[in-house]
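Course assignment 3, question 2. Fill in each field.
Student: A.L.
Task: Predict the tertiary structure for the chain below.
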Amino acid sequence: MSQKETMKKVLAYISKYWFMVVLSIVLATVTVVLTLYVPILTGDAVDLIVDKGLVDMPGIFVILKKIGIVMIITAISQWVMNTCNNYITYHVVRDIREDAFHKLEILPLKYMDTHAYGDVVSRVIADVDTFADGLLMGFTQLFTGVLTILGTLGFMLVTNVPITLVVVCITPVSFLVARFIATKTYTMFKEQSETRGEQTSLIEEMVGNQKIVKTFSREKAVKEQFAEINGRLEKCSLKAIFFSSITNPATRFVNSLVYAGVGIFGAFIAIRGGISVGRLSCFLSYANQYTKPFNEISGVVTELQNAIVCAGRIFALIEEEPQIPDAEDARVLTEAQGNVELSKVYFQYVPERKLIQNFNLKVKPGQRVAIVGPTGCGKTTVINLLMRFYDVNEGSIKVDGTDIREITRGSLRTNYGMVLQETWLRAGTIRDNIRMGKPDATEEEVIEAARAAHAHSFIKRLPNGYDTVITEDGGSLSQGQKQLLCIARVMLCLPPMLILDEATSSIDTRTELKIQSAFARMMEGRTSFIVAHRLSTIQEADVILVMKDGNIIEQGNHESLLAQGGFYAKLYNSQFAL
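Answer field:
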């Protein structure tokens, strides 16, 4: 996303708070005008000190009172202006974060499958914080800086035109210096932001998988990988900060030339009687105030460059193509009968690698369908298509005679109960995790579901029972206990269709037998899809689909497939042969 496009989007967010922006500009104007009025009063006071013994003390005291009143009003205006700027900045940041998070909720799964989680987190957290800092500095110093420059020029023109021309002639040098450095720093800050996202991604990945890292003694390799990324971040950050830090001293040098030019040229005019000493002191004060905003604005420009880069990364996320929305006339699936049909389904994650080819399947209500096959044959992909996490490239999937693309995603998924090999628990109580699919469930229903999943006994042994708070990864719970909670979650909802993808992979054999019994009761009258590597868990299935390279190569029940002596028989014998 280009710098110009990013700025347009930033301004679109700011425009929602136009009243606060206008108020901030008005207060900035008041602050600048009153600040510029003080040198005039100071100059008048200097002119009242004519010579030794010729000092108009009453007049000076009157001027001092005026200066005091002006400073109080200026301080109040500046405080209110800063409050407005904070309000604008953090409301804009809140809106951007909300939009980014909402976009994450509607992005297709293929986006999350192809982007590092750490980089996404870095965009929503770190990049937004950096953008907020740059935006706040821009509001705080940009308005007052520009108004100070314009106001000072106006006051100087009224006071003395020739000296003002000296100031104006030297000013463009400061602009040229700031522009040159700003152009350089944009590219460097962009590289810095991207590298920081890469580093965050690695840290997030390593923190979440420390056990794996230690198990395979990858500590040294991970350290080296981190050191390489950290080294690149150091270099690009150093370049960006170095170039941005040049701005202030460079503009200060130019500003010192302006001040010196005003002092020398003004002194000659004062000697000839063209300006009073008080007015010259006033002019020198203006020259200093005129040049000071250039230092501030140059600093703001470099910060804004960094902020715009970060904003561009955030907007790139917000502008990502969302998943295809539900059609306006999409059907709400209330209580599915469980009639599922896959007809001539073709699907591949990437165009150059084919996966599901001409897949056909008819499942009657209440049937238990098991899907087996070697790793990578497309078993989980079929589940993703049934749940409409991905849409088919060709063909159709129908539930109760309706194409699932014509059914709302929410109602389709509500009719499925899903237990995966990979467990997911949210930070909260045990009760909250079980109630996830049915928030209004009673305490009795929650306990009954936990009993059915054989989770009640271990839950009661926890310090606070069902009120025990766990972290998002389950905390100290074992993998098997976490899987039991996920099973209890489905037991509570009892949807008309079930998907069990290695649902008992982390459970001991004794408990698995009990769970299988509970599943058998739960599956009665419900269409069920069971993905399993352990073939002992699917022998009671009505239909077993044997998949290989995205195709169904064998189909039948356990006995008939064994009798065929084909691929299924080889898989079964490899597990149970003596």
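Instructor remarks: The chain is about 65% helix and 10% strand. The first strand starts at residue 49 and ends at 51.
Grade: pending
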